[in-house]
Amino acid sequence: MENVVLIIHLILALGLIAVVLLQRSEGGGLGMGGGGGGAVSGRAAATALGKVTWALAAGFIATSITLTIIAAEKSAGSSVIDRLSATPPAQSQDGSPALPAGDDLLPPSADGNTPLVPAAD
């Protein structure tokens, strides 16, 4: 279910981007854009692209809320503390966390058995 909503969400996002880029600039922001030279009315005419933009925006918001609810339901059963291991990390003698062995820090060799360690001279 989550994957279906996510795919619909992505399609709506791409469609919303495309429709917004197709619309003509009305010149409202920052004094830039195409000027019509006519009388400026307080209300823009509702064009077909404007209606499609509102429909896609409403669908985008609805899928966003749906995805948030799905994610909240999935994580409601456990917390981060529940996911931690039951055994605490090893402590050294002075109380500070023990450092990993040197072999754990090296990348594996080509045969996968021994780490690549430079020969000690």
TrEMBL record:
A GO cellular component entry from the record: plasma membrane
Main location: membrane
The keyword Hydrolase is assigned to this record: no
Topology relative to the membrane: Multi-pass membrane protein
Region (Disordered): 83-121
Composition bias type Low complexity, residue spans: 96-111
Similarity annotation: Belongs to the SecG family.
Protein name per the record: Protein-export membrane protein SecG
Organism in which the protein naturally occurs: Sulfitobacter faviae
Gene that this sequence comes from: secG
